[in-house]
Amino acid sequence: VTSSPSVRSFCFRGGAELLFDGVKKHQVTLPSQPEPWDIRNLLKWIKTNLLKERPELFMQGESVRPGILVLINDADWELMGELDYKLQDQDNVLFISTLHGG
Amino acid sequence: MAGGAEAVRLGAEIERRERELRGLRERLAEVLAGESGADSEEGSAGVSAAAFPAELPPLPAQASLSAAAILRYSRQLVLPELGVRGQLRLARCSVLVVGCGGLGCPLAQYLAAAGIGRLGLVDHDVVETSNLHRQVLHGEARRGLPKAVSAAATLRLLNSTVHYVPYCGALSPSTALELVRQYDVVADCSDNVPTRYLVNDACVLAGKPLVSGSALRLEGQLVVYNYQGGPCYRCLFPKPPPPETVTNCADGGVLGVVPGIMGCIQALEVLKIASGMGSSFNQFMLMFDAREGKFRNIKLRPKKADCAVCGDNPSVTRLQDYEAFCGSSATDKCRTLHLLSSKDRISVEEYKKLLDEQVPHVLLDVRPQVEVDICRLAHAVHIPLSKLEEKSEEYLEYLKKRICEEKQRTNGQTSFPVYVVCKLGNDSQKAVRIIQELPVKAYGPVLAKDIKGGLMAWASKIDPTFPQY
Predict the structure, then answer these.
(1) Residues B135, B141, B145, CA angle at the centre, nearest 5°?
(2) What is the predicted pLDDT for the residue at B35?
(3) Which residues, 6 or more positions from A64, have their beta carbon under 8 angstroms from its beta carbon?
(4) With a CB-CB cutoff of 8 Å, which residues 276-305 of chain B face chain A?
(5) Which of A100, B154, B201, B359 is in the most buried spot, having the most CB atoms within 10 Å?
(6) What CA–CA distances, in Å, run from A36 to A33, A85, B103, B433?
(7) Which secondary-structure segment (H or E) carries B9?
(8) Which chain A residue has its CA at the smallest distance from B283's CA?
(9) Contact across the interface for A101 and B249, Cβ inside 8 Å
(10) Cα(A22)–Cα(B245) distance, rounded to whole angstroms?
(11) Average of pLDDT values for B98-110?
(12) Three-state secondary structure along B235-265?
């Protein structure tokens, strides 16, 4: 089964958006690929296509760096299988950088 | 030079008045500290006596509310959710507030107003002018005073029946546990990563609920940790973030009312926990986006069995060195970068001399546009660091043009000087590195150096009329 190109949206908050030209909401068309898209592939795609400079401020290895929480439909990705979570239509993926100021 | 004598006279006058001001501040601190000593039942918890951590007596148990308390708290007493029972619980509850800044001020204000029994107020810092837009317990007259003392003095005017314990020092691994043990609930209103791990671990080891708030720019976050079997801060963030990814309020900016809102919600959760209603943010994070006017509730992971401090086999059984763990210091002061060697840097005094001698050069200001709008040196060429980092052709072309223009005024110097400046002298070092790597062909030989301490050093050492921010 080959999944067709799909339009996905995801968001950055807590300052993570500053690594993406300050844009909080992104709508992108992911290319078709034999396997369904999971978060691991999505991160790889983001790194190649959206993160132009200093990827280390967002990623560490194949995952996000410490201090960034990934939320899938307003739930901690830890509850959903983290990198292995398979993206569904209409899924809302949010990357938030934790704040420390006060 | 007639101006010279005038400058000396003004300098002496400023020094005289500053001395006078220091004296007044010291007297004010003594007066405020005296008040604090007077209202603490045992007289041992005054400001100077807030030896860290002084042993505190238990709050007295009350069987009923006095007539004065009934009048004072009547508007919340008639709430069935609180009632007399809840109010009596508040009066028996002690809360440790870690940080008397943008979050701690509104939090402490509402807890004091609501009749909490005791407020421990921790802060190592003194009040500065740039705090006043968000740290609303402090006022102009409190500048230079310890924040913990200033907060306690304002709160005492609001509700003198609460017991206030100011601690003028940083929470440290050697004192935190003993201190946290003496309180029922802890509110993390701090501004740095090491302190957040320290407060978390102390709360886990002492078994206290932790109401944690944070704010930056136009966003806020809130979670209640270590409460009724829920996760702790380390369950969520087992590893600290790389220090270079952490932004403080001075660099990132913060709209004062945003920590105000978050601090108020923190106060609400403390009151719910203290009165027995329970918190809504156990295993949930509240995210506030002030720009969009949206609150979001995020379902978090449960307590992790493999958590280093609250898990089944904890490796952290006593407090550690959190600055080493996080690779950053336990303050929100700006970091000082040491990227360049001293031969690639000049001081503001040296730069002033170059200016006076009219040495041909280009001054490159690499701050973001929003900061250039605040203040600038008129002759500077402005290219934000981000544009240099992405090697923006448009901007590099502009830089080249300006270098060529200036160069024409020289007799073909071997390497043309470019001085790079920013706010504090960190970004300017990064920019020098980038310029040093530019191809020589396009620019001719260029000698790039950065100005140590940036425009803030310029303001404090060369031109006192230049704004500080």
Answers:
(1) 70
(2) 56
(3) A43, A58, A70, A95
(4) 285, 287, 289, 296-301
(5) B201
(6) 7, 10, 44, 43
(7) helix B2-39
(8) A76
(9) yes
(10) 15
(11) 98
(12) HHCCCCCCHHHCCCHHHHCECCHHHHHHHHH
Q: Which helix (H) or strand (E) segment is B271 a member of?
A: helix B257-275
Contact B259 A101 (CB under 8 A): yes
Structure tokens at B131: 């705090």
Contact (CB<8Å) A66/B296? no
- Provide mean pLDDT across the span B254-261: 97
Are A101 and B221 inside 8 Å of each other by CB?
Answer: no
Residue B21's pLDDT is 84
* Exposed/middle/buried for residue B453 (C-beta within 10 Å: 0-12, 13-18, 19+): buried
Find out whether B185 and B89 touch, Cβ atoms under 8 Å: no
Q: Is B166 on the interface with A (CB under 8 A)?
A: no
pLDDT at B45: 38
Cβ of A102 and B259 within 8 Å?
yes
| Residue that has been written with the tokens 């929100």 in this structure | B332
Q: What is the pLDDT of residues A43-94, one digit of tens each?
A: 999 999 988 778 889 999 999 999 999 999 999 999 999 999 999 888 999 9
pLDDT tens track for B13-53: 988 988 888 888 878 877 776 654 444 433 333 444 355 76
For chain B positions 301-360, those within 8 Å of chain A (CB to CB) are 301, 332
Q: Which of A53, A76, A100 sits opposite B301 (nearest CB)?
A: A76
* Residue B363 in this model has a pLDDT that exceeds 60: yes
What is the pTM (predicted TM-score) of this model?
0.86
- Active site (catalytic) residues of B: 249, 422
Binding residue positions of B for Zn(2+): 232, 235, 307, 310
Report all structural domains of chain A as residue ranges with CATH numbers, in order of start.
7-97 (3.10.20.30)
Neighboring chain B residues of A15 at a CB cutoff of 8 Å? 216-217, 219, 247, 252
- Element spanning B388, H or E: helix B385-389
* CB hemisphere CA count around A36 (13 angstroms): 8
- Within 10 angstroms of residue B322's Cβ, the number of other Cβ atoms is 25
Report yes or no: B243 at the A interface, CB cutoff 8 Å: no
